[in-house]
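User: Some background: our group keeps a shared notebook of sequences we're curious about, and every so often someone picks one and asks for a predicted structure to add to the entry. Today it's my turn. The entry only has the sequence so far, pasted here. Could you supply the structure so I can complete it?
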Amino acid sequence: MAKKQNSGSVSIANFIAVVGIVLLMVFSYIGYSYKSGGSMGISIGIAAGIAAIAGILLWFIIKAKSAENYLDKWKVAEIIGLVLYVIFAVSSAIYGGSHHFFVVNEQKEEIKRMAENDLRKIDKMFEDYEAFENEALSIYENGLMNATASRPNNTDELTQYLTNEGITRGMVETKTEYQKDKVLGANYESLKSRKDDKKRKIMGSINNWSVLNIPTLSSDITDFAKRAETQLSELSKSGEMPVIKQNEANKFDLGENQVKEFAVEGGVENLEFQKGLTEAEGVSILGIVVILVIHLFILLNYIVTHRTRTVAAGKHTVEDGGRLLY
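Assistant: Of course. Here's the predicted structure to add to the notebook entry:
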């Protein structure tokens, strides 16, 4: 009967240990994905490695505790295994991501504000784009008005440009509207609409703080900002609005196209949200307690394992794990 009870307690302990290893793997996966800025592949590998090491160490110390021969050597091996497990538990918590998970979640309100700041920077880039292109259009239109009003006072290059483009006084407004459609028309409005939709989705997920999605969102904001920079810069290049102004000889001359490379304030590499996730620092008491409980779950299997009752061999021995009786 006692044997059945022992078997039952070990079976329960086995189940609890598996739960502990799974929890350790989950917290390590999410925590390391925070630390790595959303690198899913690396995070999965780290979490799987941590779970495997926990399982191997648990198997080893159980084997050492339940050994029935060479007891002194197995006792030493058991102690070494326990020391290694403690070192593993501490190092995996610090470097493996499980403690980082709790640190980030305790700072989530501040990190949410970082995400809002990043998205505002992207909004500001769109505002800067509109301001630049509207000013470019105004400069272009005024230049054409001056050039078409004083053709004899234009440089040969400007005269050739007006001829090639078929620009007359009456065509200035039409030509300006054509350029406006290229830089601020349907393509830009579509890009701006996609930006607003993306912003709403990202901020909605961050406000709900879906722990599994947060790491992905950190890289999403960075990728989103990079794409926006590229797309706005390409749209700006699509416009053909040269500066037309008087040169030193008081003749109206054809200058360079008004084009700008757009970038988020401070650069993509300095966006706050991803840094907030990867570089969050501090000590989480809750995290320490939960991690300790998880490791107790894992070690429960070792704790309930019965040590052999065989008496260790003495001076007069044979290698059967017992003592010779005379």
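Suggested note for the entry: The chain is about 70% helix and 5% strand. The CA atoms of residues 108 and 209 lie 8 Å apart.
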